[in-house]
Give the backbone structure.
Amino acid sequence: MSLPSLRPTGRRWAPLAITAGLAVGATVVLRHVNPYAGNSPLPGCPLYALTGLYCPGCGSTRCLHSLVHFDLPGAMAMNPLLVISLPFLLLMLLHMAGWRPRALDPLMRVLAAPMFWLVVLVGYAVLRNLPWMPFVLLSPITR
């Protein structure tokens, strides 16, 4: 007995459906668990724990917690790159699912380039570890 295969259109929408399911699960967890609390079960950044350096993802859990609680300034204080990139990540998922307006083609070519993300993430990691203004504003603020 074999399982029925997904139709091609179903396979295209699968990443979006999986991401939506994960987002709902993360929202439920972050509505009830406070990552700012000292006894939080949510893990911290292992790179920061080992080196004392902020990675591009440092502060993401606290950022998402703030977004779930509609605290945009708090989210921007934790990880501004994540806040700014979430709409673009949604656009990329919709593009992968087959939603392709012609007006967004130039933007999608840039967003689909791995080199773009490599430069953004490495550059962000370097800049948020610099000890001078305005770069210190990129590091997650501990409350």
